């Protein structure tokens, strides 16, 4: 069976009957489409008969909103699919709406196949319904030439075509501003302008619910605040957040796809209120269960500034049925970032000058990140570990390759009485003095790099195929030229300060000063191939390292496995 990159799923069954069948329908569609799946709702439409079916308006009721949430929630198990429910024909009860477009709507990923749940009694793939389906799809949307068509029935369901819809209401997922009890068939009110906000990192199905509800409510303009700068500091694994411009690009494509008639104003969100707190033209704000209190705070802020309150629409969080022990139980970008830990983020370096049978990892991280504990875990899995600090001690020792040059550069007053270099005195001499520090690093870094190359030769002699260079200054020193991959260990700065204070007996100010003198976790990650974190319990860290190690074994070129 052919697999298509993008597809259009036309759903014609009344929603109450469709909901129980949605899971098998999505599973059938996921077998045929491997990237983008657009969904068009036209409940009650027939694809039989001589007349070409026309797209008609679908009344936006709470049942429709609940169904959209239900569909995105059900699609979350098919994580390879980028599902997008198209909203052009879904209309609120207001009279100021423009008419349905008569032109074909362009889509970012023109469908290569159109699918439908429409049930025909013969179930044949050589059915005139398929021709009607293609004509309908191409009359509504820009599709690829030679558009394929597939009738999903009866693959997703067995039995007679139901005569009456199953009257089973969907669970309520949208809580409107009004305290009046809502019913499934109750029409949803439309507004001219509204707002929604979030981080929108790695746009996922919970984001899509939030955005879709906002798009249905708004008839002219939707202001979308995208968290940036200070609002990102409290996020889990902020180093792995997509850049602001990348998040906006994905967000914009999705929004224009699902409702091109709206004007979208996407702006950076730099404080908790954003434009929702100050724009008098806004009428509603869509929030999640998690951010509802923030919405209430926005309304208090507006009242304090003589602005009308916004109508709040609260969206239920989507449950993540696949979450693991240390992840949130909701669909969350934080969990997605956690799942990136241990994965290869960019292609490895080619290093033909390194020993052909040795694959070299450079392991780095800010002070207190726990990189040395990661190095020991990798050693336990079979890696040969080179500790750059130990190499530095060897180089400083009397008779070592750095001893004489350092003494000549900094004087004999850095020596203990027994002639050993006093590293504390030397450290105080260079700390905060960029010129003195450069003199020291210009001596030490090339020497440590040479010693590391000698250690690599020893690893080859011992028959090791993976070598790990544990080095806090790996990137500052330019030692990425010695490795195939850079692995970085990250933790929040507050946790790093706590660990340094506990481990080294420093004050908080001294610990922060130490961190400020180093590259930040964000700067390290930008040049890294793999990211790990020791933020959780030791067994979680071990699981991460084992995952990273297993993935590494799969991608190590065969030349590096010759001595295995």
TrEMBL record:
This protein's UniProt keywords: ATP-binding, Coenzyme A biosynthesis, Cytoplasm, Kinase, Mitochondrion, Multifunctional enzyme, Nucleotide-binding, Nucleotidyltransferase, Phosphoprotein, Signal, Transferase
GO cellular component: mitochondrial matrix; mitochondrial outer membrane
Molecular-function GO terms, alphabetical: ATP binding; dephospho-CoA kinase activity; pantetheine-phosphate adenylyltransferase activity
Signal peptide, first to last residue: 1-18
Keyword Cell cycle tagged: no
Pfam families assigned to the protein according to its UniProt record, in alphabetical order: CoaE (PF01121), CTP_transf_like (PF01467)
Keyword hit for Acyltransferase: no
Functional description taken from the UniProt entry: Bifunctional enzyme that catalyzes the fourth and fifth sequential steps of CoA biosynthetic pathway. The fourth reaction is catalyzed by the phosphopantetheine adenylyltransferase, coded by the coaD domain; the fifth reaction is catalyzed by the dephospho-CoA kinase, coded by the coaE domain. May act as a point of CoA biosynthesis regulation.
The protein's name: Bifunctional coenzyme A synthase
Natural source organism: Mandrillus leucophaeus (Drill)
Gene: COASY
